[in-house]
Amino acid sequence: MPKAKIAPSMLSSDFSNLASEASRMLQCGADWLHMDIMDGHFVPNLTIGAPVIQSLRKHTTAYLDCHLMVTNPLDYVEPFGKAGASGFTFHVEASKDNWQELIQQIRSKGMKPGVALKPGTPVEDVYPLLDGENPVEMVLVMTVEPGFGGQKFMPEMMDKVRALRKKYPSLDIEVDGGLGPSTIDAAASAGANCIVAGSSVFGASEPAQVISLMRKSVDE
Ligand code: DX5
Ligand code: ZN
């Protein structure tokens, strides 16, 4: 499977010091920065939008892994492209009839398209987005209900990760929610290689140790 990408979720950072929190995570060994975009409609929480991505982009060249928990992802493609987002992951539940256009637009704005699925959504729902001519490049399997950091990992979601890994050996498969030292082995052995972690990294006294432990679990 592809190599580990460890992506601290900036949702758990001090938003008033976003640039320095980002550089602290990169110094601690983070590969990507996971940015949680919530519109207060698709999920019952509101976070940040393209203006904040644009501000952060002035301070870092890092891969900004944007997870859009929004009802109308197509409306966000152009602003996020202009703002300097690297990955644009939309929810399959929010893209029932326009995912082909979405993927094409995301790519045309220079971003990497990904699709996310909520815990209640069957894995089969994302297969059409992987099997067509213009496939997504990452699947994000939610391991908590989207909306908030600090929730408990749902191990039963690993069945989805295993099914995806078996069908798509070289696909980037991301897990998001409740990942940390006590849950990483379950995710890694199921085949996840992109690991989002918010509270376990930001809550640690030595975030670098948590990041390196998770990387080992995926790569070894
Ligand atoms: C939840 C977000 C996650 C969240 C993860 O909706 O998508 O990225 O910040 O936080 P932890 O690692 O604390 O569960
Ligand atoms: Zn997320």
From TrEMBL:
Keywords: Carbohydrate metabolism, Cobalt, Isomerase, Manganese, Metal-binding, Zinc. It comes from the Eukaryota. A divalent metal cation binds at H34, D36, H67, D176. The keyword Transmembrane helix does not apply. GO terms for molecular function: D-ribulose-phosphate 3-epimerase activity; metal ion binding. InterPro entries: Aldolase_TIM, Ribul_P_3_epim, Ribul_P_3_epim-like, RibuloseP-bd_barrel. This is Ribulose-phosphate 3-epimerase. Substrate binds at S9, H67, G147, F148, G149, G150, G178, G198, S199. PROSITE patterns: RIBUL_P_3_EPIMER_1, RIBUL_P_3_EPIMER_2. Its cofactor is Co(2+); Mn(2+); Fe(2+); Zn(2+). Binds 1 divalent metal cation per subunit. GO terms for biological process: carbohydrate metabolic process; pentose-phosphate shunt. Transmembrane segments: none annotated. It is an enzyme of class 5 (isomerase). It catalyses: D-ribulose 5-phosphate = D-xylulose 5-phosphate. Belongs to the ribulose-phosphate 3-epimerase family. Its EC number is 5.1.3.1. The lineage of its organism: Eukaryota, Viridiplantae, Streptophyta, Embryophyta, Tracheophyta. The active site is at D36 (proton acceptor), D176 (proton donor).
